[in-house]
Amino acid sequence: MKQEDFKTSFTVDTGAQRVFEAINNVSGWWSQNIEGSTAALNDEFLYHYHDVHRCRIKIELMETNRKVVWHVLENYFKFTKDEKEWTDTYIIFDIVEDGGTTTLNFTHQGLHPQVECYQLCHDAWTHYIQDSLRQLIVTGQGLATPKEEIAIQPQGEDQGSKDAGTKSIYHRLLIETPVEIVYKAITTAERTGRLVDSRYDCKTRGWQYTEIRVWSQLF
What we know:
alpha+beta; three-stranded antiparallel β-sheet
Protein backbone atom coordinates (compact mmCIF):
# COMPACT_ATOMS: atom_id res chain seq x y z
CA MET A 1 0.00 0.00 0.00
CA LYS A 2 1.31 3.41 -0.97
CA GLN A 3 2.17 5.66 1.95
CA GLU A 4 0.85 9.19 1.56
CA ASP A 5 3.27 11.76 2.95
CA PHE A 6 1.87 14.81 4.72
CA LYS A 7 1.38 17.74 2.34
CA THR A 8 -0.09 21.20 2.55
CA SER A 9 0.10 24.28 0.35
CA PHE A 10 -0.99 27.89 0.06
CA THR A 11 -0.76 30.78 -2.40
CA VAL A 12 0.11 34.38 -1.56
CA ASP A 13 0.13 37.61 -3.53
CA THR A 14 3.85 38.18 -3.37
CA GLY A 15 7.07 37.16 -5.10
CA ALA A 16 9.08 33.98 -4.58
CA GLN A 17 11.95 35.82 -2.89
CA ARG A 18 9.78 36.89 0.04
CA VAL A 19 8.51 33.33 0.51
CA PHE A 20 12.04 31.92 0.30
CA GLU A 21 13.34 34.38 2.89
CA ALA A 22 10.47 33.64 5.26
CA ILE A 23 11.05 29.88 5.07
CA ASN A 24 14.67 30.38 6.10
CA ASN A 25 13.62 32.56 9.05
CA VAL A 26 12.74 29.40 10.99
CA SER A 27 12.61 31.09 14.40
CA GLY A 28 10.11 33.54 12.94
CA TRP A 29 7.45 30.96 12.10
CA TRP A 30 8.27 27.59 13.76
CA SER A 31 9.90 28.19 17.11
CA GLN A 32 12.17 30.62 18.89
CA ASN A 33 13.77 27.54 20.46
CA ILE A 34 16.06 27.15 17.45
CA GLU A 35 19.81 26.89 17.96
CA GLY A 36 22.13 27.29 15.00
CA SER A 37 21.99 28.94 11.58
CA THR A 38 19.11 28.26 9.18
CA ALA A 39 20.22 30.52 6.33
CA ALA A 40 22.58 28.50 4.11
CA LEU A 41 23.17 25.13 2.48
CA ASN A 42 24.60 22.52 4.89
CA ASP A 43 23.65 24.54 7.96
CA GLU A 44 22.55 22.40 10.91
CA PHE A 45 20.19 23.55 13.63
CA LEU A 46 18.54 22.15 16.74
CA TYR A 47 14.88 22.41 17.67
CA HIS A 48 13.27 21.56 20.99
CA TYR A 49 9.96 21.91 22.75
CA HIS A 50 10.40 21.38 26.50
CA ASP A 51 11.18 17.69 27.12
CA VAL A 52 8.56 16.56 24.60
CA HIS A 53 10.30 16.92 21.23
CA ARG A 54 13.80 17.68 20.03
CA CYS A 55 15.54 17.16 16.70
CA ARG A 56 18.66 18.02 14.72
CA ILE A 57 18.12 19.12 11.14
CA LYS A 58 20.48 19.75 8.21
CA ILE A 59 19.68 21.93 5.20
CA GLU A 60 20.50 19.53 2.36
CA LEU A 61 19.20 21.55 -0.59
CA MET A 62 18.74 25.27 -1.07
CA GLU A 63 17.80 26.65 -4.48
CA THR A 64 17.25 30.38 -4.18
CA ASN A 65 13.57 31.31 -4.56
CA ARG A 66 12.74 27.76 -5.71
CA LYS A 67 13.27 25.02 -3.13
CA VAL A 68 14.54 24.18 0.36
CA VAL A 69 15.00 20.65 1.72
CA TRP A 70 15.70 19.71 5.33
CA HIS A 71 17.01 16.32 6.43
CA VAL A 72 16.09 15.26 9.98
CA LEU A 73 19.33 13.72 11.25
CA GLU A 74 18.19 12.97 14.80
CA ASN A 75 14.82 13.07 16.54
CA TYR A 76 13.33 12.37 19.96
CA PHE A 77 9.63 12.19 20.86
CA LYS A 78 8.56 11.66 24.44
CA PHE A 79 5.07 10.51 23.48
CA THR A 80 5.66 7.73 20.90
CA LYS A 81 6.84 4.15 21.22
CA ASP A 82 9.43 4.82 18.54
CA GLU A 83 11.19 7.88 19.95
CA LYS A 84 13.11 8.39 16.68
CA GLU A 85 10.04 8.52 14.44
CA TRP A 86 11.10 11.58 12.40
CA THR A 87 14.72 10.44 12.02
CA ASP A 88 15.87 10.26 8.37
CA THR A 89 12.74 11.98 7.05
CA TYR A 90 12.80 15.01 4.74
CA ILE A 91 10.95 18.30 5.05
CA ILE A 92 10.51 19.91 1.64
CA PHE A 93 9.49 23.44 0.64
CA ASP A 94 8.73 23.85 -3.08
CA ILE A 95 8.20 27.43 -4.28
CA VAL A 96 6.36 28.16 -7.54
CA GLU A 97 5.97 31.75 -8.73
CA ASP A 98 3.34 32.51 -11.34
CA GLY A 99 2.87 36.11 -12.34
CA GLY A 100 2.18 38.13 -9.23
CA THR A 101 1.47 35.16 -6.96
CA THR A 102 3.59 32.45 -5.36
CA THR A 103 2.53 28.97 -4.22
CA LEU A 104 4.35 27.11 -1.44
CA ASN A 105 4.03 23.33 -1.53
CA PHE A 106 5.12 21.77 1.77
CA THR A 107 5.83 18.04 2.13
CA HIS A 108 7.11 16.08 5.11
CA GLN A 109 8.45 13.01 3.36
CA GLY A 110 8.21 10.07 5.74
CA LEU A 111 5.37 11.51 7.82
CA HIS A 112 2.34 9.43 6.86
CA PRO A 113 -0.77 8.01 8.58
CA GLN A 114 1.00 4.77 9.49
CA VAL A 115 3.33 6.47 12.00
CA GLU A 116 2.18 7.06 15.57
CA CYS A 117 2.72 10.83 15.69
CA TYR A 118 0.88 11.48 12.42
CA GLN A 119 -2.27 13.18 13.71
CA LEU A 120 -0.45 15.42 16.16
CA CYS A 121 2.26 16.27 13.62
CA HIS A 122 -0.41 16.83 10.93
CA ASP A 123 -2.18 19.38 13.13
CA ALA A 124 1.06 21.05 14.23
CA TRP A 125 2.49 21.39 10.71
CA THR A 126 -0.87 22.66 9.43
CA HIS A 127 -0.78 25.40 12.04
CA TYR A 128 2.86 26.33 11.47
CA ILE A 129 2.63 26.36 7.66
CA GLN A 130 -0.92 27.57 6.97
CA ASP A 131 -1.10 30.05 9.84
CA SER A 132 2.36 30.99 11.11
CA LEU A 133 4.53 30.86 7.98
CA ARG A 134 1.81 32.36 5.82
CA GLN A 135 1.33 35.20 8.29
CA LEU A 136 5.09 35.82 8.42
CA ILE A 137 5.12 36.18 4.63
CA VAL A 138 2.05 38.41 4.44
CA THR A 139 2.47 40.58 7.55
CA GLY A 140 6.09 40.11 8.61
CA GLN A 141 5.01 38.59 11.93
CA GLY A 142 4.66 34.83 12.39
CA LEU A 143 3.21 32.77 15.24
CA ALA A 144 6.35 30.95 16.32
CA THR A 145 6.37 29.12 19.65
CA PRO A 146 7.98 31.50 22.19
CA LYS A 147 11.44 30.80 23.54
CA GLU A 148 10.73 31.02 27.23
CA GLU A 149 7.85 29.58 29.16
CA ILE A 150 5.92 32.20 31.05
CA ALA A 151 6.75 32.09 34.75
CA ILE A 152 3.64 31.60 36.86
CA GLN A 153 3.50 31.95 40.63
CA PRO A 154 1.31 29.16 42.05
CA GLN A 155 -2.03 30.29 43.39
CA GLY A 156 -2.02 30.76 47.14
CA GLU A 157 1.75 31.13 47.43
CA ASP A 158 1.69 34.35 49.46
CA GLN A 159 0.10 36.14 46.51
CA GLY A 160 -2.16 38.26 48.70
CA SER A 161 0.75 39.83 50.56
CA LYS A 162 2.42 40.87 47.30
CA ASP A 163 -0.68 42.19 45.54
CA ALA A 164 -2.59 43.83 48.35
CA GLY A 165 -6.04 45.01 47.38
CA THR A 166 -6.40 42.67 44.36
CA LYS A 167 -8.02 39.29 43.86
CA SER A 168 -7.41 36.64 41.25
CA ILE A 169 -9.15 33.60 39.81
CA TYR A 170 -7.46 30.37 38.70
CA HIS A 171 -8.60 27.97 35.95
CA ARG A 172 -7.12 24.61 34.92
CA LEU A 173 -8.31 22.81 31.79
CA LEU A 174 -7.32 19.66 29.90
CA ILE A 175 -8.12 20.06 26.21
CA GLU A 176 -7.98 17.43 23.47
CA THR A 177 -6.03 19.76 21.19
CA PRO A 178 -2.29 20.06 20.38
CA VAL A 179 -0.43 22.75 22.30
CA GLU A 180 0.29 24.79 19.15
CA ILE A 181 -3.43 25.29 18.48
CA VAL A 182 -4.10 26.25 22.09
CA TYR A 183 -1.24 28.74 22.05
CA LYS A 184 -2.55 30.31 18.85
CA ALA A 185 -6.02 30.75 20.39
CA ILE A 186 -4.59 32.41 23.50
CA THR A 187 -2.34 34.81 21.60
CA THR A 188 -5.22 35.71 19.27
CA ALA A 189 -7.36 36.52 22.30
CA GLU A 190 -4.59 38.72 23.68
CA ARG A 191 -4.31 40.69 20.45
CA THR A 192 -8.08 41.25 20.24
CA GLY A 193 -8.38 42.28 23.88
CA ARG A 194 -10.41 39.23 24.92
CA LEU A 195 -7.79 38.03 27.40
CA VAL A 196 -6.72 40.89 29.64
CA ASP A 197 -4.58 40.94 32.80
CA SER A 198 -4.10 37.19 32.64
CA ARG A 199 -1.10 34.90 32.92
CA TYR A 200 -1.02 31.38 31.57
CA ASP A 201 1.07 28.37 30.67
CA CYS A 202 0.47 25.42 28.34
CA LYS A 203 1.91 21.94 28.71
CA THR A 204 1.61 18.85 26.53
CA ARG A 205 -0.11 15.92 28.21
CA GLY A 206 0.28 12.75 26.14
CA TRP A 207 0.32 12.92 22.37
CA GLN A 208 -2.82 15.00 21.77
CA TYR A 209 -3.85 16.72 25.00
CA THR A 210 -2.87 20.15 26.31
CA GLU A 211 -3.14 21.31 29.91
CA ILE A 212 -3.72 25.03 30.19
CA ARG A 213 -3.57 27.00 33.43
CA VAL A 214 -4.77 30.61 33.54
CA TRP A 215 -4.53 33.15 36.35
CA SER A 216 -6.77 36.21 35.86
CA GLN A 217 -6.56 39.26 38.07
CA LEU A 218 -9.86 40.77 39.19
CA PHE A 219 -10.25 44.44 40.09
